[in-house]
Amino acid sequence: MAYHDQRMADQLKExxxxxxQRESNRTSLITVTSIDLHTRSxxxxxxxxxxxxxxxxxxxxxxxxxxxPFRDFVKDNxxxxxxxTFDFEIDKGEKNRQKIDELTIxxxxxxxxxxxxxxxxxxxxxxx
Length: 128
Prior knowledge:
Oligomer: single chain
Helix content: 40-55%
Order of helices and strands: HEEHHEH
Structural class: alpha+beta
Number of helices: 4
Distance between the termini: 52 Å
């Protein structure tokens, strides 16, 4: 990603977090995880996670309805050459990572082999 696009994505992520903090009804915790800019920064997809997970559909519906007001919020609070069109998506990658972490914690046999090797202080045992 080009420097300009990365700066724009960072700025949009911060604005999305502020907007959600201001506009959400706080029945669930919505966290912005990443932003993908497409087609020369004309389209921005904002990925998010929701806790509790059973509120995901309601949160997605809410965010889809708030695309216009969010765009207006960005216009008023960002210094961008052009304001992209926004879309919101549930971050499935983050959900999958959390599921893998949960499985690893619950089943020690799935842990990586490095975790089972005792740590050494760097000393060499010359008695062998």
